[in-house]
Amino acid sequence: MSHREPASRRLLLKGTLAAGALTATPGVARAAAPAVTKATPGANPLVRNRADPHIHRHRDGHYYFTATAPEYDRVVLRRSRTLGGIATAEEAVVWRRHTSGDMAAHIWAPEIHHIDGKWYVYFAAAPADDVWKIRMWVLENSHRDPFRGRWVEKGRIATAWDTFSLDATTFTYRGSRYLAWAQKEPGVDHNSAVFLSRMSSPWSLTGPQVRLTAPEYDWECVGFKVNEGASFRQRHGRVFMTYSASATDANYCMGLLTAEAGSDLLDPKSWTKSPKPVFTSNDTTKQYGPGHNSFTVAEDGRTDVLVYHARQYKDIVGDPLNDPNRHTRVQRLGWRPDGTPDFGVPVADGPIPGLRRSI
């Protein structure tokens, strides 16, 4: 979702907020966000002013969409029978931040998943009195319709260390459920790395928690040393894990890890890390800072679709976190003859190439 703030930067942001220079969601330093305008079905950007997008295609035939709102204060949800329909679908607020205590600030990077007959939302939040003490939390709804029923707070996901953690995502592999997330590892010179663990419940981890990737290449360390926002795809006898790196400006980009199907995903040696980013800003298409992706499929049930956010300009005044114009975008994910993903470049605004016009 975001770069990490060192102590000196936290003090600067808090001082600026106290001085009234930024509009105030209590405890959160941010710029005022514009009203969301509906996009055009079948064209990018799919949803404006929504970052860290996650789209779940459910067996009821609907696509369920959630993402970070630039006010960082709520969990939103949309539903459509087509991908393109998400652009104009009504948006519901299914949960709002607390006004005090835990889960009161920096509501980031929600994901919606359907597990064992219930709906779950994973998201990051911080206490009102320490807005950078960000941790991972879980909501549960047992109603068949996630727009109905009651969203119950199941609590915080406890990890091996009580440190900055966010961007939880879950998937199943060989009969086991896993959680991947980004976290600050104590005693290590980085802002966040990506970790993996098995789950004993939709809100609890079990067994070892292993680091899959940490910032090491120059392109992962621009502005901040960040690996975050993991997403998984199992195809062509392999497991692919994308992640995002560097600061959340035009330097934000995506990396890739690959494991052979059947291997032990909790063994870091099972994974091969690509030495170069696989998805980056592009001056030709005028898309900058693409990242924090998820995957879905088109209506045909076969065509893989990359879901991500990007801005339409490179230059940002002030902190990128205060700029609300990270828009949700989608495009077809290609595959090379050797079975590896071909991300291409973030496509230009307008009709989405390689996908049905009815998207």
Give descriptors for this structure.
359 residues, mainly beta, four-stranded antiparallel sheet, 1 helix, disordered N terminus
Low-pLDDT parts are 3-34
Provide the residue-averaged pLDDT.
90
By DSSP, the count of extended strands is 25
Beta-strand residue fraction: 35-45%
Number of helices: 1
Element string (H = helix, E = strand): HEEEEEEEEEEEEEEEEEEEEEEEEE
Structural class of the secondary elements?
Answer: mainly beta
Estimate the global geometry from the Cα principal axes: globular
Helix content: under 10%
Strands of the widest sheet, in order across it, are 4-5-6-7
The CA-CA distance between the termini, in Å, is: 26 Å
User: Main β-sheet, in a few words?
Assistant: 4 strands, antiparallel
Radius of gyration: 19 Å
